[in-house]
Design goal:
heterodimer; A: 133 residues; alpha+beta; ATP Synthase, domain 1; Single alpha-helices involved in coiled-coils or other helix-helix interfaces; 2 domains; 2 helices; B: 284 residues; alpha/beta; Pyruvate Kinase, Chain: A, domain 1; four-stranded mixed β-sheet; 61% helix; 12% strand
Chain lengths: 133, 284
């Protein structure tokens, strides 16, 4: 299968640079996959599972949260706020974060801002847990 | 002569203690620099990619339905100025402010200072400050950058400012740091002036350009601000290290000179004493 160059960047560094067969991510509207020869494209990423398929046929799964994906002149750039490979996810921490967020959401006197933050935290924790399972 | 000797000795002592301080500060700065440089090296690819991608979008974009892409007609420029937390870093802070003033000349401005020195400077200049809650550059993390980005997006959407620019110090090398003012918003400002009139490629925006830009722009601002913060931090430590290094070597030079003075004075006083004794003996 044809491959195309992909680079995955986060504020903590460049996590992947090289050829891939396919990249699948969750955008703000739903899942999508990019294959070689895609037209120029730009979308914003939501929170969800993502994977890349290397030319060797290996499928590497990751949790991807926020960011953008662009294809310009055949090159794909994926800039994510956080991108964690499956084997790097700290499940215990994600579970603890999920518990904390749920407790927070049960509180009566929660403000709008706190509610938004707690919801985002819960969402992120759920994504991490679902990817690692 | 004796009084002169004492004065020189005191001066040597005071210079020595100053040298001790500058030497200690140099060591502290170099260890902090190593950490700051690592962080800045880590996030630079993200920062670069982000800016490059947005510039290429600006170059080929012909969809101006989002508020972030086109000029909104407001003249006021909002400057995000990333300064240092402390002084004693050579010309680090003053160079930064000079670059900012040069860029802001004749424009109506408001600022969002990051770092204690920047906050103090703009307070003194009585500039319009959006928020001064980011008083310490060293403690600004990704989450804070998102907060800043959201705040700026809100201001931009409401039309309080028409352009957003970032002023930070680029870490070129250990010995050279360059202050820069870069445009962040609107996205048309990112266009490469000297790029030839390219045939405009069409970009597919999914689901549509307004939604994409609304989601991307805060992300982009936060990423670029974070990159600027990391670079500025490394620059500050490098500038401080260089300043302290030259201060230490100046102190060493000074001590050498003073020692020479001291020895001369000592010798003169001995000579004088001998002359006096000889003169006295002859008088007997």
């Amino acid at each position: 299968m044809r491959t195309f160059p992909l680079s995955i960047g986060t504020p903590d560094g460049l996590l992947y640079e090289g050829e891939v067969e396919r990249v699948k991510v969750r955008s703000i509207t739903g899942d999508l996959a990019i294959l070689a020869g895609h037209a120029n494209y730009c979308t914003a990423l939501g929170m969800g599972e993502a994977y890349i398929k290397t030319p060797e046929g290996e499928k590497k799964r990751a949790a991807c949260i926020g960011g953008m994906l662009t294809v310009i002149d055949g090159e794909c750039h994926l800039l994510a706020t956080t991108w964690e490979w499956r084997d790097e996810i700290d499940v215990e921490r994600a579970k603890a974060a999920k518990q904390r967020a749920e407790d927070e959401l049960k509180r009566d006197n929660i403000t709008d801002k706190e509610l938004r933050i707690a919801e985002a935290k819960l969402h992120r924790a759920l994504v991490r847990i679902s990817v690692s399972e | 002569m004796a009084a002169n000797m004492k004065a020189v000795k005191l001066r040597i002592k005071s210079v020595q203690s100053t040298m001790q301080i500058t030497k200690a500060m140099e060591l502290v700065a170099s260890s902090k620099l190593r950490r700051a440089k690592e962080r800045s090296d880590n996030c630079r690819p993200y920062f670069r990619e982000m800016y490059k991608t947005l510039s290429s979008i600006a170059n080929s974009n012909n969809d101006f339905s989002s508020v972030f892409t086109k000029d909104n007609g407001v003249e006021k420029v909002c400057y995000i100025v990333i300064g240092g937390d402390r002084g004693l870093a050579g010309g680090y802070n003053s160079n930064l402010f000079k670059a900012m003033e040069a860029d802001a000349k004749g424009k109506e401005i408001c600022v969002l200072p990051i770092g204690k020195k920047a906050v103090e400077y703009f307070k003194r200049r009585k500039a319009e400050i959006i928020t001064e809650s980011f008083g310490e550059t060293a403690s600004v993390h990704v989450a804070d950058c998102f907060e800043i980005a959201n705040l700026l997006c809100r201001e931009y959407k409401e039309g309080t400012c028409g352009k957003i620019k970032l002023v930070y110090t680029e870490f070129v090398s250990m010995l050279s740091q360059q202050p820069h003012a870069v445009s962040l918003l609107p996205i048309v400002d990112l266009k490469n002036e000297d790029a030839k009139e390219v045939i405009r490629d069409l970009i597919i925006y999914e689901p549509d350009s307004t939604d994409v830009f609304n989601a991307i722009v805060p992300e982009y601002l936060a990423g670029v601000i974070y990159g600027g913060v990391c670079d500025s931090l490394a620059s500050e430590q490098a500038a401080r290290r260089t300043a302290m290094e030259s201060a230490t070597s100046n102190a060493e030079e000074m001590i050498e000179q003073l020692n020479l003075h001291y020895n001369r004075a000592r010798q003169a006083s001995i000579t004088q004493e001998i002359t006096e004794i000889v003169g006295g003996a002859e008088g007997l």
